[in-house]
Design goal:
This protein is α+β, with helices and mostly antiparallel strands. It has helices at residues 18-22, 86-90, and strands at residues 2-5, 28-33, 71-76, 96-99. The strands form two sheets. Strands 1-4 form a two-stranded antiparallel ribbon.
Length: 100
């Protein structure tokens, strides 16, 4: 089974995305994009620790102290991917599924 990324559900924050750091072969990376997520409505809010955005926030850079680029996504290098499924387990949203 291989991971399938639905980039319209991915509002990744580079420093908070667990899927990026969990990949044992480094097949997942962060990219900056200009378009917003269109498949869901996301409220940007500080997390409970007060350290910035919650993991599912796609509106970084607003007045709540988040900062950073307007939108981010992850990308999967399928040539490097070993199809272990760790990224799907660690994704804090529903952006990564494992498919046949």
């Amino acid at each position: 089974m291989k991971p399938r990324l639905d980039d319209k559900k991915c509002g990744a924050i580079q420093s908070a995305c667990k899927a990026i750091t969990a990949c044992p072969v480094g097949a997942i990376s962060y990219i900056e994009v200009e378009e917003p997520i269109t498949d869901r409505s996301v409220e940007c809010s500080s997390d409970s620790s007060g350290s910035g955005c919650s993991c599912d926030c796609d509106c970084v850079g607003n007045s709540n102290g988040c900062g950073g680029t307007p939108y981010g996504r992850i990308t999967i290098d399928y040539d490097s991917c070993i199809e272990c499924g760790v990224c799907a387990d660690e994704c804090c949203g529903t952006a990564i599924d494992m498919i046949d």
